[in-house]
Amino acid sequence: MNQISRPNNLDAYWMPYTANKAFKQAPRLLARAEGMHYYTTDDREILDGTAGLWCVNAGHGRREITEAIQKQAAVLDFAPSFQMGHPIAFQAAARLAEDLPAPLERVFWTNSGSESGDTALKIALAYQRARGQAQRVRLIGRERGYHGVGFGGMSVGGIGPNRKQFGALLPYVDHLPHTHNLAENAFTKGQPSWGAHLADALESLVALHGDTIAAVMVEPVAGSTGVLVPPTGYLERLRALCTKHDILLIFDEVITGFGRMGTNFGAERFGVVPDLMTLAKGLTNAAVPMGAVAATGTIFDTIVNNSPAGIELFHGYTYSGHPLAAAAAIATMDLHRAEDLPGRARAIEPYWQDSIHSLRSAPGVIDVRDCGLIAGIELEPRPGKPTERAMAVFQRCFDDGLLVRTTGDIVALSPPLIIERPHVDRIVQTLDTALRHAA
Ligand SMILES: Cc1ncc(COP(=O)(O)O)c(C=O)c1O
Question: What phi and psi, each to the nearest 5 degrees, are found at residue 210?
């Protein structure tokens, strides 16, 4: 493989969620990828412990996906989706609907998790209005939730640093407490037993806001704020309370979808089905950007049947159902089915879990948690220097050929679902060294 050269000028690109000044002084550049690995511009092999950004679930460079994209590009590069259609967008929706848990059956295409988040919130508001509940304008998120960077997702999300630069945000938003509690649940394998009662905070919000709540939005497993696993019974309770109070439940499955939980969707693993589900990332194996919102037939019918003739939902993106993305989605979902990637994730989960939890005795580790093929390792922050220890671990891992992700002082792992035991061993050994180095 030819080495891909490093660009001479790094100035023009304003990098997202990056310490631009520091990065450009010491760049980490990934040039190509295959299977479980990235390769840097100086051709160092980097084991991908994060499936890119929680998205390359089937592993890198999958021929079936690449060929589907190439073939589609040669047939139809783009077609408008407003008052027009093209076959593959319908085929991809029908294919996704085959895998969705009932009663989710309708698919609205977006281009990212952020767009999916804002789309789901808008659909929830439009649904309430269409069924004669226009007073239901309030949106409930959860502390430490991440639903992307649009104004809806950012407002309903519960991450301080993501909000503080941007003023007043959306009105009529409130939050449930998060479920993370080290005193009760540190070093739990899988779902913790303490914390289901935290869902009851929704009762207090209903007492406060009456019948003005349109929807509650949560991630089944919160990823971006450091892998917060739902306590046993928590999601069930939230579902029951939403049903009791006639509130829509939205699951943000942008990272828990497409096999990561050992099932197609987190909804199946936890046995709790929402009214709306947001998707992205693993949908196309990240080969082409694409997101989706899945809705129940009732939500679709209510909005469509209660609208006057003409456009029923004033929402959509130029690239909704883009032909290349639709081709990538079908190929990806077919690959998941042919190789039973959720089953593969399920099969390796016990080994993954035991291996990751062996790091509990490494220096600075104050919690290890996991669910499906996700793990979080929480570190004791260095006194007065939050995030510094985790960044040192991240850099040392990268220098030693492993990509991990950090959020605050938490190391998050979410490898491609094709991971095998020797990869797991390497992740643990490299992390162990890095943790000792950062002690
Ligand atoms: C749960 C969740 N929702 C939404 C998003 C936003 O997705 P995107 O970056 O594709 O807009 C992410 C991204 O990490 C996510 O983890």
Answer: 60, -140
